[in-house]
Amino acid sequence: MTGWKASDIPDQSGRVAVVTGANSGIGYVTARELARHGARVLLACRSETRGIEASDRIRAEVRDADVQFVPLDLGSLDSVRKFASAYDRDHGRLDLLINNAGVMALPYGRTADGFETQFGVNHLGHFALTGLLMPRLLAAPEARVVSVSSGFHALANIDIDDLNSEGRYRRWIAYARSKTANLLFVHELARRLAAVGSGVVAAAAHPGYASTNLQTKGPRMEGRKAVERVVSLGNRVFAQSADAGALPTLYAATAPGVAPDSFTGPRLQGWRGAPAPSWRAPWTLNDTAGERLWAASEELTGVTYDALKV
C-alpha cells in the first residue's frame, strides 16, 4: 500500500462500475480513473446538466472512455427505485458500486420521503440503492461495494431512537451520525455477505481533507458568505486535491486483497497522503448497533436484502 497511486489500479477491462455523485470532486476523479483503466462507468448524478458535462469532460481527458450519465437522486426513494429498475433493463453485470455521493453540514431539511437530509441522502439513499442492486453484485465475480465515509464520523455515534434528528438538530453532529451510519452499514453488510458465503467485498474509505465543493455548499445555501470565504481559503491552503482525495476510494475498489469491512484513508494523520488503513471509532464495529440500524433502514426505505437472509 505504501505510495499507492492511481497508476497502480489494475486493469478494469470488462468490469462495470456505478459511481454516485460522479459529476464533481472525488466522485468525478473516481469515475475518470476507473474509465482510464478500462471499466465501463455509469455516472449516477442528480443533475442531468452536470452529469452530462462530467461525462463529456472524462471523454475529453481519457481516450475511448466508456462512460454514461444516468439520473439518480439519492434524496428520493422513487428515483433510487427507478435507477435500479432501469439498470436491470438496460445493463448487464455490475462489478463495482461506489457509494460516493453525499452532503455535509447543511441547514435542517428533509428529503422527498421526509427523512432528515443528511441521514436520508448519505445513508438511506445508498442503503436502498445497494439493496436493489445486490442481485447484480452477487452475480459478478469479485464484486465490491465501497462506501465513502469521513473522519468526522468520530464526532458522534448514531442515535437509533432519533435517526432523523427530530429532537435537536446540530448540522455537524447530524453529518457525523450519517458518516457513522455509512461505516455501520459496511460492517453489517460485510457480516451478512460472509454469512451467505458471498465473495462480494464491502469496504469503506474516506478522502481526508480534500478540496471539493462539499465544504462550501452549506454556507452558500444559507448565504453565509464570510464562512464560505473562510472554507474556500482553507481548501486552497490546507486541503489536498480531489485527485489525491479519491485515492483511498480507488484503492478500496480495485487493489488486490482489500479486506471486507476495511476502512481506508490518507496515510498522514488521516488528512492527506497515500492510502493506508484508517482508524475508526469503536462504535462503528458494534454488531448490535449494525443490526439495529439495518432493521431501521429496511423499515424506513422498504428495501429488504432478501438474498442475504440466512
UniProtKB/TrEMBL annotation:
Record-level Gene Ontology MF annotations: 3-oxoacyl-[acyl-carrier-protein] reductase (NADPH) activity
Alphabetic keyword roster: Oxidoreductase
InterPro entries: NAD(P)-bd_dom_sf, SDR_fam
Transmembrane intervals: none
Gene: rhlG_2
Protein name: Rhamnolipids biosynthesis 3-oxoacyl-[acyl-carrier-protein] reductase
Family to which this protein belongs: Belongs to the short-chain dehydrogenases/reductases (SDR) family.
EC code(s) of this entry: 1.1.1.100
Alphabetized Pfam families for the sequence: adh_short
PANTHER family, alphabetized: PHOSPHATIDYLINOSITOL-GLYCAN BIOSYNTHESIS CLASS F PROTEIN, PHOSPHATIDYLINOSITOL-GLYCAN BIOSYNTHESIS CLASS F PROTEIN-RELATED
